[in-house]
Specification:
It is built from four helices and eight strands; from the N terminus they run E-E-H-E-E-E-E-H-E-E-H-H. The protein is an alpha+beta fold. A hairpin with a 7-residue loop joins strand 1 and strand 2.
Length: 174
């Protein structure tokens, strides 16, 4: 039986050339290119962006601070080394960002990549994804201009700016 939902992709956004890429949420899409387009419309409508990346949600290995002492920490992973992007959430405080990219690590598996990241940073939760599954925009000027320039001109307004439509106003409409 076929599912009724498209696969989920995690979205990674980089605001400026000097800022770290950050996990900002997810979209459901048919493929990575479709996910990039949807991510642009959802996460780059008003704030600026320098680059945007997506990767299949099921490719992410996730562990919380409590899980850092779990059984996976003792297991040796087998296989060939590959590059992993590792993200860390630094506090329990709620924000619009799930995790910051803390580095790119060569490892035999995602758990090993997180163990390596722990030598360089702290956090309350970690995600690791194989670099080969990450698809993104190129940091070329023409790509940045065509993908992200329209958002620079949009004025951000809180929802309260627009006021409320009352039932009386709806009834009075011609």
């Amino acid at each position: 039986m076929w599912g009724t939902e498209w696969p989920r992709y995690e979205v990674i956004k980089q605001d400026t050339p000097k800022s770290p890429p950050q996990m900002v949420g997810s979209v459901h899409a048919t493929d990575p290119e479709h996910a990039l387009l949807l991510a642009r419309h959802v996460f780059v409508r008003r704030p600026s962006a320098y680059a945007l990346f997506v990767a299949p949600a099921e490719a992410f290995f996730h562990v919380t601070q409590e899980g850092l002492k779990g059984p996976w920490a003792e297991e040796a992973e087998e296989g060939r080394e590959e590059a992993y992007w590792v993200f860390a959430k630094r506090s329990h405080r709620r924000s619009m960002v799930y995790g910051d990219l803390v580095g790119r690590f060569l490892a035999k598996g995602p758990a090993s990549a997180i163990k390596e990241a722990l030598l360089h940073t702290q956090g309350v939760a970690f995600w690791a994804v194989p670099e080969g599954l990450v698809v993104g925009t190129e940091p070329k000027e023409e790509v940045i201009e065509s993908w992200f320039a329209p958002a620079k001109e949009k004025t951000y307004r809180l929802q309260s700016y627009y006021g409320l439509i009352t039932a009386k106003e709806v009834e009075d409409a011609p």
